[in-house]
User: Fold this.
Amino acid sequence: MATRLRTSELALLPFPILLLGGAALLLHYARGSEWDSVDLAAALLFTVILLVLHVVLTWRLPRADQALLPIVAALCAFGLIAVSRLEPALTSRQSLWILVGVVALLVTALGLPRADWLGRYRYTWLFGGLGLLVATMVMGVDPNGSGMRLWLGFGGYYFQPSEILKVVMAVFFASYLAEKRSLLAHAPLRLGRLTLPPLPYLAPLGIMWALSMGLLVWQRDLGAALLFYLVFLAMLYAATGPRYVGIGVVLLVLGAIISYGLFDHVQLRTRVWLDPWPYAADDAYQIVQALYAYAAGGVAGAGLGFGYPEYVPAIHTDFVLAALGEELGLIGSLGIVALYLALVHRAFRIALRAPSDFTMLLAAGLGTILGLQAFIILAGNLRVIPITGITLPFLSYGGSSILANFVMVGLLLRISSESPTKGPVHG
Amino acid sequence: MADQVRRLSLYVSLSFIVIAGALGYWQVVRAQEILARPTNPRIIEEERRILRGRILDRNGEVLASSEKVGELAQRSYTYPPLSHVIGYASSRYGKSGIEESYDSYLRGDRAVDTVTALRNKFVRSEQRGADVVLTIDLQLQKAADQALGNSKGAIVALNPRTGEVLALASHPYFDSNAVDENWGQLSADSSGVLVPRAIQGQYVPGSVFKLVTASAALDLGLADPNAVHHHEADLVVDGFTIKNTNHPQLKDLSFAEEFAWSCNVAFALTGLALGFPSQIDYNILAGPQPFLWPRGGVDASVARFRDYAQRFGIGQAPRFDLPTSAGRISTDDSLTPVQLANTAFGQGDLQVSPLQMALVAATVVNGGEMPAPHLGIEARDASAATPLPVPGAPRRIMKREAAATLNALMVLSVDTAYAQPARIPGVPVGGKTGTAEVGNGTPHSWFVGYAPADRQGVAVAVILENAGSGTTYATPVGQKVLQAALQLGY
Assistant:
């Protein structure tokens, strides 16, 4: 029975717990105040959640990947540290969101009859997702004054459909591509002397491009549009090889040019991205303050609680990296990047051991979503690309994002537990 | 398909290399440059939290100190008349004085011992600066401020051997404790309340400048202190009359007495004749016959005069712990004989600071070597101290013998002539008075001197703006400061 114990996972789990506990101590020291019972309760709840999750996984999915949970827990710990440092009033809500996320993870990982079962209902997912999108376009609200109507409200709770949409779309594309990939990869369409790809099967590509542009036009949600499109392109590449990459990139560039020409906010963001300093007092205030934060952090950081994150507007949702970069320094920020890298690595490792084409594409798609989403927001935070308002997986404050990300981890755990390899998969 | 998934995994992973590179770029490569940008709010915020080191006088008396009031540090200054020297450290209006000059020590950026350096680096909220010890003697400073009273003017007192500045009084003064509150009033002030007159005041020197002319004549061997000249007539140079009025009771004077009684005619002649190859015969020169120029004409004299003025550092800001003014000597290619004659006795196109004049007096009593003036002694942490570097270096101005002769002339002036109010019973004092004409206003009253004259005790320069005669006003003030210094053991 020893082989059924998840020993690697158990050995790794103390690290995120110690990370959170240590940070709570440091924050207490930095504030020089009474113990904040919320921080303690959050750390305690976090520990209990992880242990329960570990026990349930050992019991029901013993062969599931053992590194995923510790990596995700470490990222969540950084997220909790950031929230309790930046917006202490939101710490309890973030802890509860993690709890809800873990429940969603368990429902996903344990509730599916088989991972492949998801693929059978792809059009349900597609139309459900499109329905959500349409609902947001029509009834979307803007509860926190971000200037973008990206939320749906249900009796005081707000929910961002694009977060769930990305999971649903990944499932749809994995299923569609798993079935049609040989057609898409090989069937020629001749037009005189030119050999073209099979146009009818290219419809999804066109739809995806249109969907991204739609997101952009209707909701001004640059980040989500870019993410959706790139993830689709990546999955198409995984399924069919380099055949469509060229045209996909051309369409991407075309979209970028068109949106630059059409929208003031795209031009503004591009201008601010190219040279923020002249606009430091107004349009580029946020990014300039973030650059100061990184610089102030240096290699070793100012120390938790000793930086000035209050200078960066919306730091707990849009610029968590700036806060952590300042207080934890390059050492801390590189640590976070390393965690994302490890997460992506595990996702693709699961993909490569997946039991079917569908699950392989799905795991690769989920890994790409997590990786690219982190990349897009981190790169925006670091002026590598223009800033876009998407969340940093597991780190940013926000319920829908955490929920969606835990569902993805649940799917990955489930897929890994169905890996055809005999015996336990070691971390 | 597995190959493509593997390659995709590689591409996604590589994108994180870009992120890591960007982090290194912003957090390390560009960090210093970005942090120094003026719109960085951290600079101001951190400034307000740092517990700056204290500023102490040479005996450990506290001149400035900080304490925490809540999160922020509050700075207080114990002796407002020193505000020009100590300066202020305002988050709104910047820094001045010692607060500015030794900012890195006072902030703790340049910690003296390694323990403090490490603590400051890693425990930011506790950043605590080093104490800075100054050469100022608060007791002497108080005596100087008291002697100066409500007059506009300045006093410099320094050690003529080491260049340690013991007192720097500039009146009127402001209060560093209330710079933020009074900024509007201070910056609008027309009396120059923010100007540290002692080191940045620019004044016509009048007769105290005869020290420079006399140094040149004695160092060049052109003047014999004991040669007696007959004085009766005014001197007319190119139609310009220099009146022979300073000592109407005396008709026959030696060069030493001419110095002591501050004879303008004799010093005009000395200046004009500086280009001569050998001793000046004042009796011939002052006669009715046309002035006999040395070879090279007036330019030869101008060149030597300017050479000595520049040796004394006139026209060049003294290197010091605080910003100083350069003073001014006409840099026209050639002075006319009238201009040279006037400049030689301290009028004309000439300006000096009190610090520069104190250094001239110090040079005389220090055997012809000008000390390097400075204010900093050391920076101190809890466990270690490091000496503060002296900004300049001492330099030789004239021969030791020439300085000794001039010293005797200054003592003569105090013992027998215009500088008599500077006398201190039982102590040889050297001094020179000045009454500097300023257009139509009341003249500036000057005194420079030192005591005791037979060793390097203390040298002073005193100026009272528009007060009148040097003998009547500045000299008694100088005497009080010298006496206070002697009582303090200098």
Summary: The beta strands of chain A are 152-154, 157-159, 189-191, 194-196.
